[in-house]
Fold:
Amino acid sequence: MSSTHKPARRGRRTVARHGELSSPSPFGFILKLIGIVAAVVLVSGAGVAAYAATDFTSSFAEGAVDLEGQGPVPPDIGAIEGGVDVLLVGTDECEEEYAYLFGDRCTGADAAGQLNDVNMLVHISDNPRRVTVVSFPRDLMVPIPSCTREDGSTTSAMSKTQINSAWGYGGLSCVAKTIKELSGQNIPFAAKVSFGNVINITDAIGGVDVCIGNGGIKDKYTAINWPAGPRTIQGVEALQFLRTRHGLQNGSDLARISNQQQYMSSLARKLVSDEVLSNPATLYKLAATAVDNITPSKSLTNPMTLVQIALAVKNVPFEDIVFVQYPVLTDPADVNRVVPDYDSAKELWAALAANESIEVTHDQDLTGGVIVADPQPTEAPPAEPAPDATADPSATPAPGETPVALPNNIPGQSAAQQTCSAGNVRANG
Structure:
């Protein structure tokens, strides 16, 4: 679980070449953000058996979680000033079907343990609508507050411990409370999905296309030995791809975050494609799979809330959908861990609070997790999307608006960019 910052090599070998992508169609992007949560919206929006939405919502509400210490849930996202935040948590669990992939992690006394290895805070701004997804490294050392467990007992607050242990102290609610105190953002909505469940979601849409660069990926810890080039991943391969870090150029969890962002961007492109949106059977399968594979907060179980979230982001162009990594510094007490860079984070939160367009200045080729896919010189520019007669004019950024340049130590990319995995076939045997 090392987060050591190794210098990334500048040399690269890209494979698939793609230009920037057009903006998402209505309801498409929300599946990328809370895809499994908003599947009900897609089903009802696609006109697939109206009763299904109610049926799914009833099932979806089972096992829903109360969020401790959060502010009031907005009655109508469209009326909220300053936007709204949704927390997405991905857990590393020893699910019986996939335990063999986790090796020592799923044997012995720790076999039943769960870690929240992926924590993403999705910020949806007020008009003009923008979406910023902030990923928190699992090796980030932070204070964890006292949390209330399901049985009503409470845990002791800790001044400094690894963020991915928060799940073990109080589940989804404790993760939300921890990130709320770290970020200063109110988090009224949250959802959790395990890595194994991601396999089911990926399979429901027929796989996700990713790009492998730098000669390929070889990682004995996740059993990957893939050549460079485009690759459609589904089933176990989706889990292997999301978990790999040893097969990446940098080998750290920070590099893995960049690689996971490539997957999420590709997932968005697949979900807004005609292959999914125009196929009622696929949408229904996705919705049915979704409700069986996530744990939501109780605030997310109202179907109207799902619709409101979808409507809040339906007109956001890809260039205003930005993935960033929470800024960190090497932990002076342990070079394999990181600590918050509060000064840089303050600039990020201020830009979000002011609803300013943001620009990532960090060089993607230096993340050690991805490399930038060069645009194809002969490729025709994407067609302009048809105007939406119902679109809110205030959702369009003012012409000539200058984005706020984020500090150089905040890696990330917009959804309009495409990257390839910065593979390292010599990383391990």
